[in-house]
Amino acid sequence: MEMLYLLQSILTAAARVIFHLRSAHHITDALTTLVWLHVPQRIECKTALLTFRVLHESAPPYLGPLPGRRSLRSTSTNRLLVPPVKRSTVGGRTFPVADTKTWNALPQDVTSSQSEYTFRRQLKTWVFKKSFPDIII
After folding, report:
1. What are the residue boundaries of the structural domains of the chain, listed by start?
2. What's the CA gap between 124 and 1, in Å, rounded?
3. How many helices (H) and strands (E) does the chain have?
4. Which H or E run includes 131?
């Protein structure tokens, strides 16, 4: 958690330098002007992008295949099975678990993208709207 705080403070400091803001000023307007996401949302985007690449077989082979798609009614959706977790402390942070949870949280129109360019654009727009709901894009 400390690493996320450190990365976020670096991102905030960079935005303050760009816009010549003091520490008393709010940083949200600067971040939205730069179209920068907060660190947890950036991690979410990177995880979703890696999942997209694994599903479309353009990821490194060591990431391996993801758990299969659900059967029956949900075969028409792009949802993935979340593998069972043996250890609740660290099991949920492994790539097969974290990426499927992130992927399943995405809306259907984002996950149904076929090209990486379109997926990245839709993903960042969706995460940006979720992170800054008061901002009109």
Report:
1. 1-36, 37-137
2. 23
3. 6, 0
4. helix 116-131
